Automatic annotation (TrEMBL):
Residues 107-373 form the Protein kinase domain. The lineage of its organism: Eukaryota, Viridiplantae, Streptophyta, Embryophyta, Tracheophyta. Pfam families: PK_Tyr_Ser-Thr. One of its GO terms (molecular function) is protein serine/threonine kinase activity. This is Serine/threonine/tyrosine-protein kinase HT1. InterPro entries: Kinase-like_dom_sf, Prot_kinase_dom, Ser-Thr/Tyr_kinase_cat_dom, Ser/Thr_kinase_AS, Ser/Thr_Kinases-Pseudokinases. Residues 379-421 are annotated as: Disordered. Residues 385-394 have a biased composition (Acidic residues). Keywords: Kinase, Membrane, Transferase, Transmembrane, Transmembrane helix. PANTHER family: PROTEIN KINASE LIKE PROTEIN, SERINE/THREONINE-PROTEIN KINASE TNNI3K-RELATED. It comes from the Eukaryota.
Length: 434
């Protein structure tokens, strides 16, 4: 109908050229095509509760957060490729139970939330539920070395069998198109980032003791199951959204403890136990004898950080840290509460046999936390006093002041120092006599 009207304008003698009218007709068709096929309006009906209990139609909410998630194929197809010329680990055969593997088509990838030396962690959606997705590097699975594949397989197997409230919850894994581990999403971030965010302030002592107690309990669980973690540090500890609990993540270096030799220099230098270092150069992959007490040493450095909010061995590079630790140099105890110092010193002892088991550490921390809570609850809260209690307090203060003044007038200077209970007794006697 509109075309007929436009064509009729051609025959009208309004001083408008025929070519200009044809141009308008062309523009009309282009706009009509774009609006119809390239900008469809989605008016999905959704129910919105109103104050009067009714309902009203609403446009579908396509937030920017939803649009930021992509499928695995869309996110990583440029990196995966088909070239297998450098596939050093292509002959590795995974031995992972099929029930532990997920369908990667049900997974979507969002923003990066963490990075490690061998992996990148993304926020994701699995079956529309928020998750954390750890992707082993490089992205192309066939290009990953056999050593990394074996570590990935060991981490998946360990996470699947562990069940503790302070261990990150395992959801599933995938070996194609890339190596991925899917776990619950911890929105509180790492303990390391939290400590950095409040510097130069130190955490509340109750918070520090609670976090340390959580960590000690989960390490007791691991060691009782014959597992040595080997990489305890604040960046591997994830906080809940309310910052009240902590969970252990990243089991890439964890393994079942054996009585023989294990790989040396497993972990991060600032938190590594001295028995894992060697002053003399060792070949890559060299093994040494050590046991689960290496985790106790790493725990002591984390506890020191919780109490001071400082970087251990600050200003020293990895080689200098290794040298200092091997020479029995430890972080300063100047700012550490007196009742906490003995625990730290025992946990970072040079001789692994002198370090306590985590069951003992848990008992010590429980007693320290209980003492702190009792001491905190025994302190008077001025805000909770009633008006009558405040008036009584004022009368006691006046009475104490008058009595103390009269006593000072009668006594020599050497006898003026009285404790608070003596003054209160004098006050009561004076008031009763009046």
């Amino acid at each position: 109908m509109k075309d007929i009207r436009l064509k009729s304008l051609i025959n009208c003698d309004y001083g408008v050229s025929q070519s200009f009218v044809l141009f308008l007709l062309f523009v009309f068709h282009v706009l009509h095509f774009l609006i119809t096929f390239h900008f469809p309006m989605e008016w999905t009906q959704t129910t919105v509760k109103l104050e009067n209990g009714g309902a009203a139609p609403k446009m579908a909410d396509h937030s920017d957060e939803q649009h930021s998630f992509r499928t695995i194929t869309t996110a990583f197809i440029p990196f995966i490729g088909d070239d297998d010329s450098d596939d050093s680990g292509s002959e590795f055969v995974f031995i992972i139970e099929p029930t532990l593997l997920i369908d990667p088509h049900c997974l979507k990838i969002g923003e990066v939330i963490g990075e490690g030396s061998c992996s990148i962690v993304y926020e994701g959606l699995y079956n529309y539920q928020p998750v954390a997705v750890k992707i082993i590097q490089p992205i192309r699975a066939s290009a990953i070395s056999p050593e990394k594949k074996e570590r990935f397989q060991r981490e998946v197997t360990l996470l699947a069998r562990l069940n503790h409230e302070n261990i990150i919850k395992f959801i599933g894994a995938s070996i194609e198109p890339t190596l991925m581990i899917i776990t619950e999403l911890m929105r509180g971030g790492t303990l390391q980032k939290y400590l950095w965010s409040i510097r130069p302030e130190t955490p509340d002592l109750k918070f520090s003791l609670s976090i340390a107690l959580d960590l000690s309990r989960v390490m007791t669980y691991l060691h009782s199951n014959g597992i040595i973690y080997r990489d305890l540090k604040p960046s591997n500890l994830l906080l809940t959204e309310d910052k009240q609990r902590v969970k252990l993540a990243n089991f890439g270096l964890a393994r079942e403890e054996i009585s023989g030799e294990m790989t040396t220099e497993a972990g991060t230098y600032r938190w590594m136990a001295p028995e894992l270092f060697s002053i003399d150069p060792l070949p890559v992959g060299c093994k040494k004898c050590y046991d689960h007490k290496a985790d106790v040493y790493s725990f002591s450095i984390i506890l020191w950080e919780l109490l001071t909010n400082k970087t251990p061995f600050k200003g020293r590079n990895d080689i200098m840290v290794a040298y200092a630790v091997s020479k029995n140099i430890r972080p300063s105890l100047e700012e550490i509460p007196e009742d906490m110092a003995p625990l730290l010193q025992s946990c970072w002892a040079e001789d692994p046999n002198s370090r306590p088991e985590f069951t003992e550490v848990t008992d010590s921390l429980s007693n320290l936390l209980q003492s702190f809570v009792l001491k905190e609850s025994s302190l008077p809260n001025m805000d909770d006093k009633t008006e009558e209690e405040e008036e009584e307090e004022e009368e006691k203060v006046k009475c104490t002041s008058n009595t103390s003044f009269s006593q000072r007038k009668r006594e020599p200077k050497a006898g003026r120092h009285r404790n608070s209970s003596f003054c209160l007794k004098c006050c009561n006697n004076s008031c009763l006599s009046d």
